[in-house]
Structure formats: C-alpha cells, structure tokens
C-alpha cells in the first residue's frame, strides 16, 4: 500500500473538467510549479478503456475498481490506499461495479 496524499499545496487547478464516457469519468488537472501535472478524478459504475501516452500511476483514494492492463490476462482488484501503474503507449480497462471510485493519476516520465 502507498501513502496517498489527501491534499496538494501550491498548485494551479484547471477549472474545466476532463469529461469522458458521457460524464461517467470526470477529472480535473492540477499543475505543479516544477511543470508536472496530475489529474484528480471520479469513475462512476461501468467498464471503460483508456489509452496512455505517458506511463501513469493510478492511486485509488476511495472506492474499488478492477483493472486489466493491455496485453495482460489477469484482472486485479484495487481499493482505497492502493495503486497500479500503466506503461507508456499502452492502455487499460477499468471497471467500477458499485459506488464511485476516486483516484489521483500521476504522469510518469
């Protein structure tokens, strides 16, 4: 398990949301002084596929999800306090069966 932050200091928040899958996945981008960025988001029940340009670390803040990275056979369960990583130029399927899954997505160089 990781120590997932519950707040970020001295960031710029982008007001316009990133809205995917008819509003079933919504995130906001936060920008850091060093030029890095993260997104903070919500995933409502459903199954969704995302492609990645950069590698990503997805930290689960609250809720539960099931994830299958592209090219893998296994589906893994993640819950609050856990994280998974996705390679660059890849993708993953994520499913939320019930409730809302809240996450922090970090883009890894």
Description:
The chain is mainly β and 109 residues long. It has one domain (12-108): Jelly Rolls, CATH 2.60.120. 0% of the residues lie in helices and 56% in strands. The chain has no helices and 11 strands. The protein has strands at 12-13, 18-20, 25-31, 37-43, 46-51, 55-62, 64-69, 76-79, 83-86, 91-96, 101-108. Strands 1, 2, 3, 4, 6, 9 and 11 form a 7-stranded antiparallel β-sheet that branches. The two termini are 22 Å apart. The model has no long low-confidence stretch (mean pLDDT 95).
Topology:
Layout: E1 12-13, E2 18-20, E3 25-31, E4 37-43, E5 46-51, E6 55-62, E7 64-69, E8 76-79, E9 83-86, E10 91-96, E11 101-108
Antiparallel strand pairs: 1-3, 2-3, 3-4, 4-11, 5-10, 6-9, 6-11, 7-8, 7-10
The total of beta strands comes to 11
Per CATH, the superfamily is Jelly Rolls
CATH overall fold name: Jelly Rolls
* Mean pLDDT over all positions: 95
Largest sheet: 7 strands, antiparallel
List keywords for this structure.
Jelly Rolls; 109 residues; single chain; mainly beta; four-stranded antiparallel beta sheet
Summarize the structure.
The protein is an all-beta fold and 109 residues long. It has strands at residues 12-13, 18-20, 25-31, 37-43, 46-51, 55-62, 64-69, 76-79, 83-86, 91-96, 101-108.
């Amino acid at each position: 398990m990781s120590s997932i932050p519950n707040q970020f200091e001295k960031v710029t928040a982008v007001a316009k949301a990133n809205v995917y899958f008819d509003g079933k996945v919504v995130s906001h981008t936060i920008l850091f002084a060093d030029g890095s960025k993260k997104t903070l988001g919500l995933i409502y029940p459903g199954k969704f596929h995302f492609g990645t340009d950069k590698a990503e670390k997805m930290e689960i803040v609250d809720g539960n999800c099931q994830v299958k990275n592209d090219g893998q056979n296994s589906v893994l369960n993640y819950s609050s306090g856990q994280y998974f990583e996705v390679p660059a130029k890849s993708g993953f399927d994520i499913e939320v069966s019930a409730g809302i899954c809240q996450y922090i997505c970090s883009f890894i160089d």
